[in-house]
Amino acid sequence: MKPNDFFNAEDKAKIAGAIKAAELNTSGEIRLHVETHCKTDVLDRAAFIFSQLHMHKTEARNGVLFYLTLEDKKFAILGDIGINQKVSTDFWNSIKENMTAFFKDGKVSEGLEKGILMAGEQLKLHFPYKDNDVNELSDEISYGK
User: Fold this and answer.
1) Range of the domain at 114
2) Residue 135 falls within a domain, yes or no?
């Protein structure tokens, strides 16, 4: 299955809506990237995609990437240095655990929505929305092979 065929139109809209909602109260930026396979360590691949999507170029270094592989059933959440300097060490793991519960029930899009909104809540605490905020990165899902 091609990654861009995995989610139906409604799921894509809900995920993009979760990203928009999460970013409403923060200057932080959230992206989702979906691929079929990950032939390397999932965190290494997520870091590569993070760079490819130019997520390290946000002004406050406050980008978050949700990376998902469909057939390998792996995922990672990667936050930029600006976030990692402010959130607790177990923050990403708590989001992953929450998402995993949804994934085990076959509710992938719901798990992603929940994780994205949880990340947004944390971003809001450390990177509040500013009147002159610019959406620095696309809210649409990106896809690989």
Assistant:
1) 3-128
2) no
Q: Which among 34, 36, 25, 31 has a CA at the least distance from the CA of 1?
A: 36
Give the C-alpha distances (Å, rounded to integers) separating 92 from 38, 68, 115, 140, 144.
20, 15, 9, 22, 23
Task: Read off the CATH number of the domain in which 69 is found.
Answer: 3.10.310.50
- Domain tally for the chain? 1
Q: Is residue 143 part of a domain?
A: no
Q: Per residue in 2-56, pLDDT tens? A: 888 899 999 999 999 999 999 888 888 899 999 999 999 999 999 999 999 988 8
CA distance to 37, 42, 76, 111, 122, per residue, from 125 (Å):
34, 28, 22, 22, 5
